[in-house]
Structures are given as C-alpha cells and as structure tokens.
Hints:
This protein has helices at about 15-30, 35-55, 60-85, 90-120, 135-150, 165-175; strands at about 125-135, 155-160, 175-185. With about 190 residues, it is mostly helical. The chain has a 3-stranded parallel beta sheet. The longest helix has about 30 residues, at about 90-120. The radius of gyration is 25 Å and the shape is elongated.
Amino acid sequence: FLFFQFQPHAYYFGGAVSLRGLLVCIVPVVAKHPAIQIITLCSIMNIFQIASRYVRPWRSNLADLVDGCLSILIVLVLLCAAMSTKFDEADVLVGWMGAILFLLFFVCAASALCFSIYRRTRSSPYYDSFVCHHKADAAAQARYLQMLLERSGQDCFIDSDHLTNLDLLFDTVRCKIGCLIVYLTS
Length: 186
C-alpha cells in the first residue's frame, strides 16, 4: 500500500512521507517553547513541500495538487498560531531564529546568483562528452555509447550529427566539451 500511491520513479517517497509524519510528531516533544515549535514545524513542512514539488511523486496530478494545498494550509495554520501566541519571554530567541533564517535566505540567494552567473558564462551549448569515431567502422558502436551516456544523464555530442558546418564542429571540440572519447577501430 505504501508504494502503490506513488509513481514508479518516486517509489521511495513513502519513506519521506513517513519521516515527515514522524518529525511533525516529535517536534512538540523535543522543543518545549512554542516559538521553536512553530518555526521548526513550518520549516519541516516547507522542506517536504519543496521536495514534493521537485519530485512530483503522486500518481495523479490531483493528488500532487492536494498535497501541496494541504501543506500550505498547515503552514498558514501555524502562522495563525504564531500570531495568537504571546512570546513575551522569547523575544531574544525569536530574534536569533529570525536572524538565522534571514541569513539563510541571503546564502540561498547568493548561491542562486553565483550558479546563474556560472551558467551564463559557461559556453553554450556545452556537452559532457564528445564521441569521435570512424563513420563506416564504428557508427553503431558510437551511437550505442551515446545512448548509454545520455541515459546516465550526460549530454553527448557525436560529430556525424552535426556535419553541416565544420567550423562549428571544430569550435565545439575545442572549447565546448568536457571529455573527448575517441573510438579507435582498425
């Protein structure tokens, strides 16, 4: 019953849902202060919401939508609880937690900015590997190697796919590949 709810590529997400339930149950036991409980519960729900949006584990789109809406509603209920709770003695604690979350926001924003600058300056298109081969003797083997590499998530470039402009081919081999694979045949 645990695997039936999820798509085959996300068979493991049943364990993630069980872990989310366990963490939500443990937070009130471990953290005694309401401010820590609310922030921790919101963090848990948001982390699992991001994972669920990335993986899209449910078998139907409606189940994905309902899971997302319920997670958002739980976070909104927690925010309402935070607004109605008196935190007189927790000003310093809430201040520190807010500062840490604010710092975490800037670390994530700076990381995203650095990654986008890296992607922008990286020559495009960029291929992880380039398969060079003799067209008559090793075409099928090179194509099979390309399929294996692309199945493992790598971008693969074969010269016989791009023979219209040889200057572009030489430029690609010179500066737009990570690994040159030369398929030697006799």
